[in-house]
Please model this.
Amino acid sequence: MKFFESLVISIRSLFSNKLRSVLTMLGIIIGVGAVIAIMAGGRGMENAVTSTLKDLGTDVLYVQPVNPDAPGAAGMSPGYAGANLTLDDSKAIARIPGVLGVAPTNENFVEITYGSEKINSVIEGSTAEFQTMSNYELASGQFITERHVASRDNVVVLGSKTAETLFGDEDPVGQRVKIKDKRFTVVGVLATKGGSMFGFSMDEVVVVPITTYQARLFTQRTPSGQDAVQSIGVLVAGPEQMDDVRADIETTLIKRHRIDEGDKNDFAIVSMDQMIGVFSQITGVVSIFLAAIASIGLLVASIGIMNIMLVSVTERTREIGIRKAVGAKRRDILLQFLIEAAALSLVGGAAGIVFGWLLSLAISFIATFAGFPLEATLSPVHVIIAVGVSLVIGLVSGIYPAMRAARLNPIDALHYG
Amino acid sequence: MEMIELENVTKIYRMGEVEVYALNGVSVSIKQGEMLSIIGTSGSGKSTLLNVLGCLDRPTSGRYMLDGIDVSRLDDNKLAELRSKKFGFVFQDFNLLTRATALANVELPLIYSGGRYKRVKAMEALERVGLGKRAKHKPTELSGGEQQRVAIARALVNSPSLILADEPTGNLDSASTKEIISIFRQLHEDGITVVIVTHESDIAQQTQRIIRLHDGKVASDGKADSL
Model:
């Protein structure tokens, strides 16, 4: 028998049992839908983080403290990392050829008040170079200057969202806000930048001079008693100088920190590309893990298909007998029921892809509405995998019922029921 | 020419511990173009004999020569091929696919035997049994006699050399019975071998030869008027 004829027979019999077919497909639709939504959402998250990081500039290296005694990558986590970078380290790095600028930066969360308005914001203690390095434009006023840093002025630059929350339509420049009960004069407002990092908007930020941050807001000292710096951003002249500058920073810091040969460094130099790679890996692993959990639904769906196919074979025993009596071979019957299971699963899978895509659009919409800009991205690879998986599920769950049908003895089948 | 030769054929069914001889040493030969009936009480083995003849079932022992080939040891696929090329079956309860039209039912054997012009051949077979006008009707929309005629058309569509009918009039009124029997007689006149299993002696009387089975053995085999 021709494949096409088997296909026609199978589709007809699925149509003659519409409600049952749809209910059986529902399992596959939900299973495939969940997996697709998670994969698309995960890819969207990855893209959002990557584009935010790229926006920070790719010609940038970050020097961070590391606890050399901590195991593995734990040494870089803020809880473990020692306080061992200083402003003097930062100045030494600034003198390296190929370095355009350095932005020693400390970071924390803080409450800012203006009159009765309050907002929790990320506070960055840094230098004038922070603006270039983080790609911020000014909306009004000025940024932190070298003079502000040198004289530890109580001045602050507000992110656009922070400014809007505190001041509304009022012009913030020249006004005074309170941070940790100290008065700061607003000298500038940043333009809206968009993007977010793990849910924190890049526009919900305030910047103060690093020296002011160290002396008046959050004091942390190195073992030798100097003010500590959490990270140093280094703007490199061009991508081709990246490797040289990285090597020079390493030798400079090894010398300054008196690290013996063979000992581990108490700092790490990370490029933006490396950070992008790490974040992509994290989101990738998380979405695969979630998809694996969701695919338990596919297993359940597969059992559902097998169940309904077994019922169908029993119900149609007489039909199978008739077909065999007029000349159907085992493989004709096998093919008919296999195609039926595969069609059930494939159509369910296709509907599942559409359902998953709609679901991920809904997730993106809700996430964006809640302030985490996310654009779910469905890649063709995911679609192909979903179709393939549906087909395999159909065949695997159809093979046993189909074999039972094919093995039926024509006489017993003809006199059944 | 001998078309079919059964030699000492037995068919044993196991019912738990007990062995039941449905056929117990049956030897029968059938010539090309004969029209005969197999009669006997229920349980005499007449349906089993028909199933063995039609290659729906294999004998437990003995030899079945069909056109000079021993078919008793062929595998399932070969038997399916034989059924599709040489035999046409007609059953007591019609055994039509209820969801398909008369035409689609008649087409069914052609799907498995392959070949072209399926629709045309199926239509020809329906016209041969006088149902050309009811091709698009489903079995539920047809009378019992008409359903059985569809079944006969289905049996005919592959141009078989042998038609096997198992109690073909068992579910029909006397008018339809007459119709069906006259169709079988027409097929016989066209040269097709017809074997009818029945327990009604007046139907058997209309065939040339009657084989009477008793307890799985041939009790008598001869001309209809000799009974």
In short: The radius of gyration of chain B is 17 Å. Chain B has seven helices and ten strands. The helical segments of chain B are 46-53, 76-86, 102-113, 118-128, 144-156, 174-189, 201-204. The interface with chain A takes residues 51, 54, 56-57, 76-77, 80-81, 83-85, 89, 91, 95-97, 99, 108-109, 111-114, 154, 158 of chain B (CB under 8 Å).
